[in-house]
Amino acid sequence: MTRFDTDVLIVGAGPVGLTLAIDLGRRGVRCTVIERNLAPSPHPKMERCNARTMEIYRRLGIEPAIRAAGYPSSYPMDVFIVTRLIDPPLLHLPYPSVDELKARSRACTDGREPLEPYQLISQYTLEPLLKRVAENTPNVTVHFGCEFRSFEQDDEGVTVQTQPIAAPATHDMAALAGELTLRARYLVGCDGGSSAVRKQLGIRLEGEADLLQLWQALFVCDDLYERIPIGRGRHFHVADNRNTQLIVQDSCRHFTLHTVAENEEEIRDRFERIVGMPVQYQMLSANRWTQHLLVAERYRERRVLLAGDSAHLMIPTGGLGMNTGVGDAIDLAWKLAGTLQGWGGPNLLESYASERRQLGLRNVGGSRYASRGRRAWRSTWRPEITEDSAAGAEARANLARIADVEQRKTNELLGIELGYRYVDSPIICEPGHALADPTDSVAAPDPDAITYTPSTWPGSRMPNQWLADGSALQDRLGSGYALLVLEPHTGGDAATPARHAIEQLVSAFATRAAPLEVHRLNEPAIRANAGHALVLLRPDLHVAWRGDTLPDDVAALADRLTGH
């Protein structure tokens, strides 16, 4: 028999690769993560986990650790447009703290608020945290200092050539450190925008490349955050012609400056001029980066798949890049698990490429929408904007008026974060399908809406719902499929047609050895919000089917939802 060193080999130990490994390990799948760097990246890169990502991390049991490591939950998330930090802001957009958003969620009964609000956490904080979690997750091996070189795939698996470049970190990795060849059933490239895995597959990135080149510089300044006279916030956009932005990192001691500049000395000078007051600081690093809006032409080729930046590159405006990658990971993990454990049919893993690529295209569009908003107000900049004159006052007022509309396109994207749904998926039954409830005639929600409207339309994320006892519905659900029976349950006759149909559905899933739990909930508010008595959820909490009565052929429904 062919020897497999691991079931899934993941190339790249960024947030996407590590999240994928953690979820796979929890599902009982052996996986190995290799990373060419010797340690997690020291660069900030991303700085926010959005609401959907934090819901995912809650499901993985690591949300409290991320909150504790990140930006304080009581601090405001305000956004400013300024000339300097000591001058009156041209625009101040207040946004609630995590604590305030959690209170808002608790008071919400219609699903409009997420279970978990966003969290500011720098990538150089998040990656080591995820690495520790992955290393302590059963079935997961993480090896830094091991470089991917090439692969060959066949009908049974993938043979990967690696090049260890460092001594093993633990005794358990000693065998791996001495090998150049690894054999896996599947290979996943989570190795970033310059993905070697994607390049070997010959997969092109499509879209808009090389839109703008900026510098990102990381500064440490212990007392700046507390001394900013215009107030605390997370983003300070500078009204200039250099696309300058100062971002507060999770420690509130570190700041990143993004700007167009010629060299590092110009970056230092710009930082000092923006701060506008004497401070002790140190510039820790400075690197160039380029804006792209690109999506891979395909996400899979047989036993090799792409996730995260290897599959899509977005402008950070709107904070969709890493968060889209975490969505890739959580979609892929349960589908790989179902395929490897034998209950998933061929359409299960095939649906990963179709579902997530449409999300990649959609979120690139959301990033474009946000960045165009920012460019719109920046285009109104005039040199006299800092002058103490009538012309200066007019320039400031004009920019602020436009930015009050356009800057919100960056910061208010809850529909993009939560309202996405999978369209035309082979493992979902949308209204109109032969297995769908024929009485389900509600109009489909717009999958590209900027504002969020909760919906149980198949393909959508199940909205957050609070139960009568104060617990969250999401917390009640396991790692498999879940059938919500939302009509009030009174323990009636077990021989009623509805109960018989549910038992047949349970039997159909059991025949495939697919995990399914039935949750009978006497929750009138949830029933009213759902609009249906029955809602069948996938392991990723997206709605797979809904209705008031199950179809006659429940075996066919089970087959479709499990990819057969």
Explained architecture:
It is a single chain. With about 575 residues, this protein is an alpha/beta fold. Among the domains are: about 5-65 and about 120-200 and about 295-360, FAD/NAD(P)-binding domain, CATH 3.50.50.60; about 420-560, 3-Layer(aba) Sandwich (Glutaredoxin). It has 18 helices and 22 strands. The strands form 4 sheets. Strands 1, 2, 7, 8, 9, 10, 16 and 17 form an 8-stranded mixed beta sheet that branches. An 8-stranded mixed beta sheet has the order 5-4-12-13-14-11-15-18, with helices on both faces. A hairpin with a 5-residue loop joins strand 21 (about 535) and strand 22. The longest helix is centred in the middle third of the chain and has 33 residues, at about 345-380. It is globular, with a radius of gyration of 25 Å.
What secondary-structure arrangement, pairings included, does this model have?
Elements: E1 6-11, H1 15-26, E2 31-35, E3 48-49, H2 51-59, H3 63-69, E4 79-82, E5 91-93, H4 98-107, E6 119-120, H5 123-135, E7 140-144, E8 146-153, E9 158-164, H6 174-177, E10 181-189, H7 196-201, E11 205-220, H8 224-227, E12 235-238, E13 245-248, E14 254-259, H9 264-275, E15 282-296, E16 300-301, E17 304-306, E18 312-313, H10 321-340, H11 346-378, H12 390-406, H13 408-411, H14 414-418, H15 473-476, E19 481-485, H16 497-511, E20 516-520, H17 524-530, E21 534-537, E22 543-547, H18 554-561
Parallel strand pairs: 1-2, 1-10, 2-7, 4-12, 10-17, 19-20
Antiparallel strand pairs: 3-6, 4-5, 8-9, 9-10, 11-14, 11-15, 12-13, 13-14, 15-18, 16-17, 19-21, 21-22
Helix pairs in contact: 1-5, 1-10, 10-11, 11-12, 16-18
